[in-house]
Amino acid sequence: MTLTHLRPLPVESFHPFKQGTRTVDDAGLVQIDGAYYAALPAAPHSEVTVRNYARGIEILDAAGEVLRRHEKASRKGAFVLESADRLFNPSRETARLLAKVEQIGPHTAAIARELFARLGRPGQRAIYGLANLPRHYPRAAIEAVCARLLAAQCVSFAAVRRALEHQVTPFPRRPNSPKPVRRFGPSPSINRSGKRTLRRNPRRIPMTMSITELERSLRSLRLSGMSATLQARALQVASHDMDFIEAFGWLVQDELDRRRSRLLDRRYTLSGLGERKDLASFDWSYNLRLPKREVLELGTLKFIDAKQDALLIGPPGTGKSHVAKALALLAVQRGYKVIYREAHQLIEDINEARELGQLRKYRAQFKATELLLIDDLFLRKLPTQAGDELADVLMSRYEKSSTIITSNRPVDDWTRLLGDVVVVTPLLDRLMHHGHLLKFEGKSWRLKEAAARVAKHTSSN
C-alpha cells in the first residue's frame, strides 16, 4: 500500500524559521516584518502560510505546497515582486484617471492601461499626464499620435508628449486674470441695532505637524500600527511609488495587522502555554513508531470544528506534550480560544476557586473555551476527589467543544488511579465517543538528549 501523505526527508540540514498565517491583500501581496512580498498565484483575500527564515521568505498554500520563495527585504516598507506579479487593481484615483483618459479615445486609453500594467501604481503619474493633455492639445491630435505610437510599440508618456510638441500646435495660453484682493483686516458690518461694527474675517491657519508629532498623535489615539510605518509610507508617497489614497489604505492595513498580531499574542498569553512548540520542528525520523499520520490529520484542526476529543497515551519522552502543545499553538494562531493546564494544576485551580467562591465562574470559563489541553495526567498523584472534578469538566464539554489529554498511563490503569469505577467508566465513554486515541511508542527523546550531554561532557574532559 502506497502512503501518498508521506514524503521523503530533506537531504539538507534544517534551517530554523518562524511560521504564521497572512491574508493576501488586493495587490496580491503579504506583509512580513514591515516588508511586502508577492504571494501569487494565491488569490487576493485568501489565507496563506508564511515561513520567515533568517535570509529568505517562503509562502505556502493551505495544502502546504510552496507557492513562492523570496530573498528577505533589506528594509521595512520594501516591495519584493516582479513585474509579472503586479495585479491590474487600480486605486480609486487611478480608476478616475483611466476613465478620464478613455474620454480622449481608445488608443490613448490603451496606452494608459499598458502603462499601469507595466509600471503598476507608480505609473499613475504618467496616466495623470495623459489625462491633462486635452488642456493643451486637441483630442483628435492626441488620439492620432497615440495610434501611431501603439503601432510602433513605443508606449510611454514622454514619447506622446514629444510627438505632440513637434507635430501639433498647442492651444494659446489664456491671459492671467487678476486675483481678487483678500482682506484680512477688520471689515464693517451692521448689527441688529443698526450700528456699524467691525467684524474680523477669520484667517486660514495652516495645520502643519511634523512626522514626530504625527506619530505621537497616532499613538495617543492607540493607532500604534499606523505610527510604526508612517515614515515608510510618507517616503513612498514622496517618491511617487503610490498616491495618498493608496498609502493611507496601506496604513490602515498596517494597523489591522498590528491589532491582529497583538490579539494573537494576548490569546497566547491567556492560554497558559509556557513554550511555543510546532510540528515543523518535530523530528519524526528518530522514532518511527509514532502515529505521524494521525498527528498530521489533527494538525488540520478539523477535530475542533467537529467538537471531537483526542487522547495521547504513551511512555514518557515520546513527544506527547510536544505534539499537544503544537496543536494548541496552531489553534491559537487560527483564532480559537485555548486553555492549557497540567492535570495537577487544573485540580488545584478548581479547589482554589471553590474556596474563593468562584467555582461557577471558573467552570464557565472552561466550558466556553474551544480547546482545552490537559497535560501529563497521572504524572503526579492526584487528590481523592480529582476523579469527580475531572469528570465534571469533561462532561460539561461533551459534544460542545474539544479536549486534548496526554498521559503516560494506559487507559486500563485509570480506574485504579482515580479510585472510582463509577466515575471513570462514563468519563472514558464520553471522551472516546467522538475522540481520537493516539498511542506513542518507541524511544525516549529525553534519554537521547541526556546521552548526548554525557557524551559531550566526556569528550570535553
Structure commentary:
This protein is an alpha/beta fold and 461 residues long. The chain is built from 17 helices and 14 strands. A five-stranded parallel beta sheet has the order 11-12-13-10-14, sandwiched between helices. Helix 2 (106-119) packs across helix 4 and helix 4 (139-151) crosses helix 5. The radius of gyration is 33 Å and the shape is elongated.
Please render the helix and strand layout as text:
Elements: E1 18-23, E2 29-32, E3 35-38, E4 47-52, E5 56-60, E6 66-71, E7 79-80, H1 92-102, H2 106-119, H3 124-132, H4 139-151, H5 157-167, E8 186-190, E9 196-200, H6 211-220, H7 224-238, H8 244-271, H9 292-298, H10 302-305, E10 309-313, H11 320-333, E11 338-342, H12 343-355, H13 359-368, E12 371-377, H14 386-397, E13 402-407, H15 414-418, H16 421-433, E14 435-439, H17 445-460
Parallel strand pairs: 3-7, 10-13, 10-14, 11-12, 12-13
Antiparallel strand pairs: 1-4, 2-3, 4-5, 5-6, 8-9
Helix pairs in contact: 1-2, 1-3, 2-3, 2-4, 4-5, 6-7, 7-8, 12-13, 14-16
Q: Determine the strand fraction and express it as a percent band.
A: 15-25%
**Unreliable segments (pLDDT under 50, ≥5 consecutive)?**
none
Order of neighbouring strands in the sheet with most strands: 11-12-13-10-14
- The total count of helices amounts to 17
Distance between the termini: 50 Å
Class from helix and strand fractions: alpha/beta
Share of helical residues: 40-55%
Please tell me the overall pLDDT: 82
Per the principal axes of the C-alpha atoms, what is the gross shape? elongated
The major sheet is characterized as:
5 strands, parallel
Number of strands: 14
What is the radius of gyration computed over CA atoms, rounded to a whole number of angstroms? 33 Å
